[in-house]
């Protein structure tokens, strides 16, 4: 049995005051113990949120990490080493906003994935196709290529300590959600790709769906055989909505 996981990506949102409010409201939510919950504030707010959620069953992660571990001359970056030191346990890697706006290649994403694991963080590897790629019938091919790159660099055993999030780019922040069947098809393909290298890893790994998940559509998506939870953007900024999504998992 895979334990459901719901992750909230707060992106570049919040002030110290609003983050304190959100954190406090999350503490008040009735979170199901059967579901693992993690939030990803911006790096500046990580320590505040770690302190604010102390004692609550909600983990904290970062939205990105440097490709290199340790310390060094990489202005503006945070290494997995530093994130761990700040209280993070998780990190997103390869979010489509990083890939598309900041030009992160599969190679860089793979290095970040390896660095996160090397430091003891759990990486959530994000993969997904653009609308153009979906319309060209290339969804599974694109996702398989993104996954293959990381598999080649990290090895399949690394996925025993990782999570993969399928996030169609056209569904992120757009209000458009992949249908449960569309999402399931890609999740099944991801699991089959991992199974072709190691069945045990494929059976155990949690695969999340992300892209305009709301309280109203969460249960149906999470009810699909290969969808083990969600990566939630916009709706994770409202504690009540996020709580409802967690309870749907
Ligand atoms: C995301 O950015 O990872 C995401 C899924 O966003 P939203 O839920 O707002 O579509």
Automatic annotation (TrEMBL):
Catalytic activity reads: D-glyceraldehyde 3-phosphate = dihydroxyacetone phosphate
Cite the InterPro entries for this sequence.
Aldolase_TIM, TIM_sf, TrioseP_Isoase_bac/euk, Triosephosphate_isomerase, Triosephosphate_isomerase_AS
Q: Does the keyword Isomerase apply?
A: yes
- Name of this chain's protein: Triosephosphate isomerase
> Which is one Pfam family of this protein?
TIM
Q: Which UniProt keywords apply?
A: Cytoplasm, Gluconeogenesis, Glycolysis, Isomerase
Which gene underlies this protein?
tpiA
Mind telling me which GO cellular component terms the entry cites? cytosol
Organism equals: Stutzerimonas zhaodongensis
Q: What is the lineage of its organism?
A: Bacteria, Pseudomonadati, Pseudomonadota, Gammaproteobacteria, Pseudomonadales
